[in-house]
């Protein structure tokens, strides 16, 4: 039997991008003026767009959208502690309809803060980040393979950060306990700014190479 590639759609493809609404996390929490949104488009696509301001915070700036695992997700662990169990896959594929040539960050969280700050905001935690670029003519990612507009991000391309800085003692990404997924646009100290727009077809976990077994599509 010819090999087939196991794949599980997280958003798009066989799964809707919305509802529920994605959660916004922009630099406005620090006094900045950047903004972002993620909305659904016809054909079960999504649009991550916004404006990256670098003037207010002196060259810094970020805008991001996040979605948490839900109890009704096909890869969810338990109803009381929902997460995506992606441990049987080799990484994440971002299927891009069109981009703008800017560098984007895909963020995974395998742990969530147990408490909030006094002002009601969520405490900072460890992010696992992988960067990629996308334009209308192609897509590519740092240290990853790309085909057409599909960006392949193996697990080892995700690096741990805390408050935007590398966290060397974070251990390993717990691919069986992914609790939140997000897209981020950041300034990289003023090298990116202004309007941004990324049209997405789907986000899925998959194998790097086909297996000699029946394909898995969830």
Low-confidence stretches: 212-218
Helical coverage, percent range: under 10%
The dominant shape is globular
Strand content: 35-45%
Q: How many beta strands in the DSSP annotation?
A: 15
| Order of helical and strand elements | EEEEEEEEEEEEEEE
> In angstroms, what is the radius of gyration?
17 Å
Q: What is the CA–CA distance across the termini?
A: 21 Å
The pLDDT mean sits at: 85
Largest sheet: 8 strands, antiparallel
Class from secondary-structure proportions: mainly beta
Counting H and I runs of at least 4 residues, what is the number of helices?
Answer: 0
Can you give a write-up of this model?
This protein has 218 residues and is mostly beta strands. Helices cover 0% and strands 43% of the residues. The chain has no helices and 15 strands. It has strands spanning 7-12, 23-26, 35-41, 45-52, 62-68, 91-98, 103-109, 126-135, 138-141, 146-147, 150-154, 159-162, 165-166, 180-186, 194-206. The strands form 2 sheets. Strands 2, 5, 7, 8, 9, 12, 13 and 14 form an 8-stranded antiparallel beta sheet that branches. Strands 1, 3, 4, 6, 10, 11 and 15 form a 7-stranded antiparallel beta sheet that branches. The radius of gyration is 17 Å and the shape is globular. The two termini are 21 Å apart. The model is unreliable at 212-218 (pLDDT under 50).
Give the topology.
Blueprint: E1 7-12, E2 23-26, E3 35-41, E4 45-52, E5 62-68, E6 91-98, E7 103-109, E8 126-135, E9 138-141, E10 146-147, E11 150-154, E12 159-162, E13 165-166, E14 180-186, E15 194-206
Antiparallel strand pairs: 1-15, 2-5, 3-4, 4-15, 5-14, 6-11, 6-15, 7-8, 7-14, 8-9, 8-12, 10-11, 12-13
